[in-house]
Amino acid sequence: MPGRRNDMSRPEIGIYLPQLGFSFDDLLHRTRLCEEHGIDSLWLYDHLYGPGMPDYPSMEAWTLATALLSRTERIRVGHMVLCNQFRHPVTLAKMATTLDQISGGRLTLGIGSGSIEDEHRRAGLPWGTFAERSTLLGETLQILHQAFTEERIDFAGNHFTVSDMPIKPGPVQRPRPPIVVGGVGEKYTLPLVARYADVWNVPTYALGEIEHKIGVLRTICGEIGRDPDDIVLSIEAVMALAPDQAALPKVREFAEKRFGGPGFGLHEAGLIGTAPAVVDRLRELVGMGFGQIVLFTHDRCSEQTLELMASSVLPHL
Q: C-alpha 246: how far from its chain's center?
């Protein structure tokens, strides 16, 4: 994906399936269904427990991604997004190149500065200010770039010092597994996207500001001399797909109950409807330059919704 331009005719369609409350068999079944139905990628979250639900079962993100990639053949797997504080960047680089080898080049590496203070506090991990976490993330991104392209790390930063560290074997994907950075902060996050990301993901909470944030990113890219079209635009959104008009009120009600709260951007996404309406909206997003669309489904990736996507949505994109 590095170097894929935003004028592609067919966007990558992914499913975001936070692993909260699922058994491994459930998750593997849904992942294989996504693969069978032509979904391009599956996305997990990276939390030590479900946000706000510490007593609910939730599997560790990297181990789970490894297991899913080793039991599938085509689908890509990534995280939306890894928490930078959970893994030392050298260890993460080694993990990523190993998993890219295991999967035959199907890893997408999403990473961010962390979003839940409580899990850091419970685990005894440093939290810090957003500025501090962003600086840490910037150093990790530099280390990952070096590890993937040179298979060796020599780095001296404010937080990490790495001396002549080999990372072999390197990744299957060249020049590297795609690096996704999510978020829309104009002071810290978008400058990191402009310098280091192959893919920029607009989270659900920012769907009402899409055009403004794209403009800011393009300005920053111009200031540092990077072609903004070399960054794949990605969007994360809730989709409530109804089989017909008669079913639409119930589907809408269910989506409102599960994803109607602040931060999910249910209405801003514009993806509540039957297949023709959803296809029209997805085409609008592609027309805006989005080359990757990652969808929450209102029913957490049911067989019925995946079949409907495969038969009535994907063929029209």
A: 33
Nearest one of 221, 217, 229 to 3, comparing CA atoms: 229
What confidence tens digit (pLDDT) does each residue in 270-304 have? 999 999 999 999 999 999 999 999 999 999 999 99
Report whether the peptide linkage leading into residue 262 is cis, meaning its omega lies within 30 degrees of zero.
no
To the question of pTM greater than 0.85 for the whole model, the response is yes
In whole angstroms, give the CA distance from residue 116 to residue 118.
6
Rounded to the nearest 5°, which phi and psi values hold at 152? Answer: -160, 145
Residue 10 confidence class, pLDDT cut points 50, 70, 90: confident
What are 161's strand-pairing partners? 156
Place of tokens 């993901």: 201
Asked if residue 62 lies in contact with residue 98, where contact means CB atoms within 8 angstroms, the answer is no
Cβ-contact 12, 40 below 8 angstroms: yes
Residue found by looking up tokens 């489904």 in the block? 297
Element (H, E) at 108: strand 107-112
Hey, what are 35's tokens?
């693969």
Cis-peptide into 81, omega within 30 deg: yes
Supply angle C-alpha 23, 29, 30, rounded to 5. 95
Cβ within 8 Å of residue 21, ≥6 positions away = 50, 56, 57, 58
**Tens of pLDDT, residues 235-283:** 999 999 999 999 999 999 999 999 999 899 999 999 999 999 999 999 9
Cα distances (Å, whole numbers) of residue 300 to 19, 204, 213, 218, 271? 10, 16, 28, 34, 15
Q: Which residues pair with 240 in a beta bridge?
A: 272
Cβ atoms < 10 Å from Cβ of 195: 16
- High-pLDDT (> 90) share of the chain, %: 97
Under the banding of pLDDT at 50, 70 and 90, the label for residue 199 is very high
Query: Do residues 155 and 146 touch, judged by C-beta distance below 8 A?
Result: yes
298: its two tokens: 């209102």
Cα gap 245→306, rounded to integer Å = 18
